[in-house]
């Protein structure tokens, strides 16, 4: 397993324009010198592996992290993103990624391996973003329970909606160079224990950040922690609501059945 990976590139306007179009936001004015919104760095500095390096599930068979064994199924569990300062389009940036920790546990569906990966992004010689991601590898076989129906989001604002379907999932996978088959291959998702295509965890976390950003909540100098609590599958309306008052604003992502699929909290670092 590689201990560290480094990538450098100029932050071009096109990936941000593509993400804005996916979110039905205006694309005019996205150009060099513009500050990148929080979490939009996920469409930059991507690992672009050769096709021969991909496993049957679409993920690289080696790298940071690598699967702990053959047949292990990968799930994105959550993470924490600290925004030290904005990234600026049109300038080079460097991402350094390393494995922080691994831990083996016994779960309901068999052995689990938890891996935490840290990426630090620098621009102009200064730290801009610290991005920790928690990945879980589970044993083959078994199935994941669907999200239980819940009361649904409150009707009052703040609220943010996004209609999710196979087209949007395909475009988000393309923007993030994510070949994981659970997002586009219905035959494969049935083998993995899901009832339909899986909505990306990072997309749900991004929508939490967008709720904060669009309602004037400052993310700079603060850490956004998010957790995926249940699978969101199939075409539906994704809704984010939150309590934006106080020192630690919170938000929840709801699926169409009214269940919470992801949660987020904004807090001071440390």
TrEMBL record:
Source species: Nocardioides iriomotensis
Protein name per Swiss-Prot or TrEMBL: Mesaconyl-C4 CoA hydratase
Domain of life: Bacteria
InterPro entries with a match to the protein in the record: HotDog_dom_sf, Mitochondrial_HTD2
GO MF terms, alphabetically ordered: (3R)-hydroxyacyl-[acyl-carrier-protein] dehydratase activity
